[in-house]
Amino acid sequence: MTQNPRFPPGAGQPDAEQPDPARRCPCGSGENYAGCCARFHQGAPAPTAEALMRSRYSANALLGEDPAFFAAYLHRTWAAETRPALGDLTAPGPVWRGLRIVDTTAGGPFHDTGSVEFVASYQDDAGPEPRRAGAAPVRGRLHELSRFRRESGQWLYVDGDLS
């Protein structure tokens, strides 16, 4: 996902307790975490640009559970020329509530580039400004067209356009 100053994405190395592998994967595939994005977070290469995008969404959704591990994952799956510093990826952002894939172009097992358009829903308890006690959390959505490239058999997030 594109770096947003209020909602920085993350990637990392194992550090704290990992998510329950039996729970549903945050990416919305319907699979449990162990059978879905966990294998990518643990080092298996994503077979498609969409699989990488879903795993990066999951890493952002799980960032608060183990910031170092998930921030390192986001960092190593981000193309070097557009990648932010690792330290910029560990700050928790909003609570990610859902992912909907709108479209994919190329990005398959026999492609070297691809794009994924998606909408990610979030809830941000902090909001853009300090809130009054008891005020409702800010809900929103991030609509992005992400670009990916495969290098040495590994899909990488390059950048994206927000709309």
UniProtKB/TrEMBL annotation:
Signal sequence extent: none
Transmembrane segments: none
Domain YchJ-like middle NTF2-like per the UniProt entry, residue ranges: 48-160
Gene3D superfamilies: 3.10.450.50
Highest taxon listed in the record's lineage: Bacteria
Protein name as it appears in the record: SEC-C motif-containing protein
Region feature (Disordered): 1-23
Pfam family, one: YchJ_M-like
Origin species: Nesterenkonia sandarakina
